[in-house]
Design a protein that fits this description.
With 657 residues, this protein is an alpha+beta fold. The protein has 24 helices and 15 strands. Helix content is 45%, strand content 9%. It is globular, with a radius of gyration of 31 Å. This is DNA topoisomerase 1.
């Protein structure tokens, strides 16, 4: 028998060995394809989500270990009690963030809570009730320096040490990562949970101009947490070295809800819930129901629009306000909005809470300019031409005699009235369904323009760029904005330098081709000129080194290089330059637009998957891993899927009855 040859290594000489995957339970756990097993149940709401549920509860933060570092009080070093030291750490971490450190509200709330955490007879609590003197007399810099040194120490750990810490953390979390449940099929499933960790304590940062920013967010303990389990499931003990003798606030057995536990936020008094992970059947069914409801709306939207347009022309002011509000929710994809206690929450605005100060009118063009803070204090600024009836209705509501800038435009309509109107036309219809519908239908319509835009279908890069442009239109419609990354300018500068380096290489090859047609004297002159240009171009500047910009480097053109070889290099560089320019354009266009929010929450994922299949684009080029994990049911859709159900489809037939 001939000797078997050794299989050559796939790792190149000197290359890094492939990381070995340690196989765990998840590699052998069967995938829960609930959409195949109970397709119809996935499309309708059920009263019971499980017949058995078991999990280990939540993971709590470890007990604080004091570092004992002193800070300066009136020029003298002073060591704080452990509880106050922990809060001082939170403030020290803010010293490099002027948006928080210098914010008046942030400082007021921190000053109040820091004094409250000190013992009643502590000299700082007694003497520093004046806020300005407090920040003048207390210097947290020594604590900041210590925290930074600890951060640097952890950053400088060896790769092996970091891996060991990560592995230890994962092993500690492993028992809390999954739940056992029977969703009513007679078999137990092992479903991944969302992050089981409670929030870490710290200073509440909020968004925008939240009135509670800087408030101390206290540590969550087991007695704050309520768990949801089966009656016959074992109740887990709170685990942790500081939790002995503590018990849960309550244990309930409610199969009609999908949450596994909750606790009350100590700052905003809102409830925070623990759910199953995004890939779970419970989450998947909820998502499918949401998008199916939006598809159902696509079959009824014409009648609803006809109805609210009739209300817009009504003689009754209340009906005109209701019709106009629904028009704005539909046409501009606005959130419904509602009244807020501005002492407890940021003053953010939706359709029903628009005030006179948020609107300005141009009667010549029938355009309205809306300028207000929307959800998460993101500014909504839009000038748009409205339907003539809607424009004059809004103008009359805003200019009602006696109204001031701070008064509501829709003073006779609230979110409840809007949603009641919508639900009268379709069961379960709300303003949020309109946002989902508008996002999904806009994406599908934009993607249908691929022929009109003359996209090169042989280039995956061009198709992906076209998809991102369509995604951006949806994000703009839904006002999904983000602040440009702090590193955006530096990143663009590096990309620009890389482009210039490629163009320099291209220029060198073109000059080489020119030199082939020159005589000896011309070539000598040309050589001196090119050498001078090369020296100037390739001299590394200190500024470039500091910014870590790619240095210019001429390509190696040997005496044996032929014209056809140079032409091949030129063609390859042209392709690389064109591709690089598209990357730069894409990055610049999307710097202030959040494409991920609409992908994750508003655009029906089946529209994207069907598009990818039609044009043979790998789905990972359009959907990040988190979205592929969240929407496994959408991955099996046909390439001819349409968000608007065709006339002969089951959904269209059921809604026509």
């Amino acid at each position: 028998m001939p000797e078997q040859k050794k299989r050559p290594s796939v790792v190149p000489a000197g290359g890094r060995q492939a990381k070995k995957q340690k196989k765990t339970e998840q590699y052998f756990e069967p995938i829960n394809k609930w959409w195949e097993r109970v397709e119809e149940e996935g499309k309708k709401e059920t009263a019971t989500h499980w017949t058995y549920l078991e999990h280990r509860g939540m993971v709590f933060n470890p007990k604080y270990v004091p570092h004992g570092r002193a800070f300066k009080y009136k020029g003298n070093f002073l060591v704080l009690p452990p509880k106050a030291e922990e809060v001082a750490n939170f403030w020290a971490q803010m010293l490099q963030r002027p948006d928080k450190f210098e914010n008046k509200t942030f400082r007021e709330n921190f000053h109040r809570d820091f004094l409250a955490i000190l013992p009643p007879d502590h000299e700082i609590r007694t003497n520093e009730k004046d806020r300005e003197k407090f920040f003048k007399n207390l210097d947290f810099t020594p604590i900041e320096e210590y925290l930074q040194s600890e951060k640097d120490r952890k950053k400088n750990l060896s790769r092996e040490e970091k891996q060991e810490i990560t592995q230890r953390t994962q092993e500690e979390l492993a028992p809390f990562k999954h739940a056992l449940l029977d969703p009513g099929i007679g078999n137990w499933l092992r479903e991944e949970m969302a992050n089981p960790k409670v929030e870490i304590p710290g200073l509440f940062q909020g968004r925008g101009t939240h009135p509670k920013m800087g408030t101390l967010k206290r540590k969550t303990m087991p007695e704050d947490v309520t768990l949801n389990l089966s009656k016959d499931a074992p109740v887990p003990r709170p685990t942790g070295n500081a939790l002995k003798g503590r018990a849960w606030a309550d244990v309930v057995h409610d199969p009609s809800v999908t949450w596994l536990g909750f606790f009350k936020d100590s700052v905003c008094n809102s409830y925070k819930y623990l759910y199953l992970g995004q890939a779970s059947g419970a989450k998947g069914k909820a998502d499918l129901q949401k998008y199916e409801k939006a598809r159902e709306l696509s079959l009824r939207v014409d009648k609803i629009r006809q109805s609210y347009r009739q209300l817009m022309r009504s003689k009754e002011r209340v009906e005109r306000q209701l019709g106009t509000a629904v028009y704005l929710i539909d046409f501009l994809a606005l959130r419904v909005g509602g009244e807020k206690d501005t002492d407890e929450e940021a003053d953010t605005v939706g359709c029903c809470s628009l005030r006179v100060e948020h609107c300005s009118f141009n009667e010549n063009t029938e355009e309205i300019t809306l300028d207000f803070l929307g959800k998460d204090s993101i500014r909504y600024f839009n000038t748009v031409k409205l339907d003539s009836t809607a424009f004059y209705n809004l103008k009359s509501f805003a200019e009602t005699k006696g109204k001031q800038k701070g008064d509501d435009i829709f003073d006779d309509v609230d979110p409840g009235r809007v949603n009641r109107f919508l639900s009268e036309h379709m069961d379960g219809l709300s303003a949020k369904v309109f946002r989902t519908y508008n996002a999904s239908i806009t994406l599908e319509r934009e993607l249908a323009k691929i022929g009109e835009k003359k996209v090169d279908l042989s280039s995956i890069l061009d198709i992906c760029k076209f998809y991102k442009d369509a995604n951006r239109e949806v994000a703009i419609l839904c006002n999904h904005q983000k602040a440009p990354a702090k590193t955006h300018e530096a990143s663009m500068e590096k990309l620009q330098r890389k482009l210039e380096c490629m163009e320099y290489e291209l220029e060198e090859y073109r000059e080489f081709l020119k030199s082939l047609t020159m005589n000896k004297k011309e070539r000598e002159k040309w050589g001196k000129e090119r050498e001078k240009i090369k020296k100037e171009k390739e001299t590394v500047k200190a500024e470039d080194e500091e910014k870590k910009l790619q240095p210019f480097k001429a390509p190696e053109i040997g005496p044996s290089m032929k014209a056809d070889q140079a032409e091949k290099k030129i063609d390859a560089l042209k392709v690389r330059i064109a591709k690089h320019k598209k990357v730069m354009e894409d990055k610049e266009d999307n710097k202030a637009v959040s494409l991920g929010t609409s992908k994750k929450n508003y655009m029906d994922p089946r529209v994207t998957v069907a598009f990818a299949k039609r044009y043979e684009v790998p789905i990972e080029r359009l959907f990040e891993k988190s979205n592929r994990t969240k929407f496994p049911w959408a991955m099996y859709v046909d390439s001819q899927f349409s968000f608007v159900p065709p006339a002969g489809s089951a959904l269209a037939a059921s809604k026509s009855k």
